[in-house]
Amino acid sequence: MPKKKSSYPGFTLVELVIVVAITVAIGAAVFVNAWDFFASRNVDLSLDEIAAAIRETQKRAVTQDTGAAWGIRFTNGTSTVDRYEVATGTSYSASSVSKTYTFRRDVEFSEPTAGTSTDIFFSAISGKTSANKIISVVATGRGFLVGDVMVDALGRVNTRLEKGLAGYLGW
Questions:
Q1: Which end of the chain is more exposed for a tag (fewer CB within 10 A), N or C?
Q2: What pLDDT, in 10s, does the model give residues 68-119?
Q3: pLDDT tens track for 43-53
Q4: What Rg, from alpha-carbon coordinates, does the chain have?
Q5: Residues 49-81: tens digit of each pLDDT
Q6: What is the pLDDT of residue 167?
Q7: What is 92-120 written as a DSSP string?
Q8: Which residues 6+ apart lie within 8 Å of 145 measured at CB?
Q9: Three-state SS for 171?
Q10: C-alpha span between 145 and 167 (Å, rounded)
Q11: Which of 126, 48, 61, 123 lies closest to 98 in space, CA to CA?
């Protein structure tokens, strides 16, 4: 008598293993892309906040708020958190700081370099700076996401977000 093929409903073990493997692969790809998206968004939002603080500081210099020039200092601390401080006057003094900002997201300065500071002071009335300056931020642990805030000598403020070293170097 010929053997009857069993007709149990369901899936074989091989079919289940294949479905699980595909699901894990898709899940891993989504996780990596979501991680990159959020890191990119954190850098982009931080750039917007820095640019807004720079523009507000420049506006205060142009309108001669409190009768003085205004500037902003960016500090990349080694033992302290990275911060930027708005101050009155033509040079930085801790006693002239009116507001201090810190990053609310997982980003840090890459320029100024660790343990250094960069100042941008605006001339009263004209709102110009003494030289072109670039402030760079990177996503913490994700160094291939670099954002720049560029301030030229005329006081124009621009932002740029680059993904990958080749894009950052202009290749």
A1: N
A2: 889 999 999 888 889 999 999 989 999 999 999 998 788 999 999 999 999 9
A3: 999 999 999 99
A4: 26
A5: 999 999 999 999 999 988 888 999 999 988 888
A6: 46
A7: --GGGEEEEEE-SSSEEEEESPTT-EEEE
A8: 36, 39, 40, 43, 138, 139, 161, 162, 163
A9: coil
A10: 10
A11: 61
Residue bearing the bigger pLDDT, 33 or 159: 159
Amino acid at site 27: G
Question: How big is the chain, counted in residues?
Answer: 171
- Contact yes or no for 130/142 (Cβ under 8 A): no
CB 88 within 8 A of CB 69: yes
Q: Using CA atoms, how far apart are residues 103 and 135, in angstroms rounded to an integer? A: 14
β-sheet bridge partners, residue 101: 84
AA letter at 42: N
Is the CB of residue 44 less than 8 Å from the CB of residue 147? yes
Write the DSSP symbol of residue 7: -
